[in-house]
Amino acid sequence: MKVGLLFGSFNPIHTGHLILANFMATNTDLDTVWLIVSPQNPFKPSNTLAHEFDRLQMATLAIADNPNLGVSNIEFSMPKPSYTIDTLTYLQEKYPSYEFVLIIGEDNLALLPKWKNAESLLKYYKVYVYPRSGSDTTEITNLPNVSFVKAPMLDISATFIRQCIREEKSIKYLVPDEVADYIKVHKLYR
């Protein structure tokens, strides 16, 4: 089984995440894509994050009707902040017959050398890169385990969605209806 891993805060999960994950699961050699809900990204401040269980629940609601996608809370029980290489190593030990592929945006590719054990990550795992506007090219693009996937570019951000919620503006079509309902019921991002 070839599993694509899309890591994120998913704060909240939105249509852009879902379109990308589904595209990767159905238009590449991946058998499935797992959304890895990260409790704390080492490169992002945690003061704007909804509780990790709320973010996990929203992601679960968002993909409930899609057999191509899964959601994982694997990092919830790991030391924080979460480091991709540690999660990949743990998953590889837990599922030795699976091949794991990291899915990242082109904007994160330039940051990858700053990640913990980046050389090992690039040596032992394939990386599928999707386009992001305004991204700079980097020498990493020429490495054998790095592949570019022509996925649709969607300029939707969780930051924008949270701002809309604070300003009491509509988030219809930016997030699935189930996620919008969850945000409203639990009074998130106000």
UniProtKB/TrEMBL annotation:
Task of the protein: Catalyzes the reversible adenylation of nicotinate mononucleotide (NaMN) to nicotinic acid adenine dinucleotide (NaAD).
GO terms classed as biological process: NAD+ biosynthetic process
Protein's UniProt name: Probable nicotinate-nucleotide adenylyltransferase
One GO MF term: nicotinate-nucleotide adenylyltransferase activity
Family: Belongs to the NadD family.
Pathway participation: Cofactor biosynthesis; NAD(+) biosynthesis; deamido-NAD(+) from nicotinate D-ribonucleotide: step 1/1
Primary enzyme class: transferase
UniProt-listed Enzyme Commission number(s): 2.7.7.18
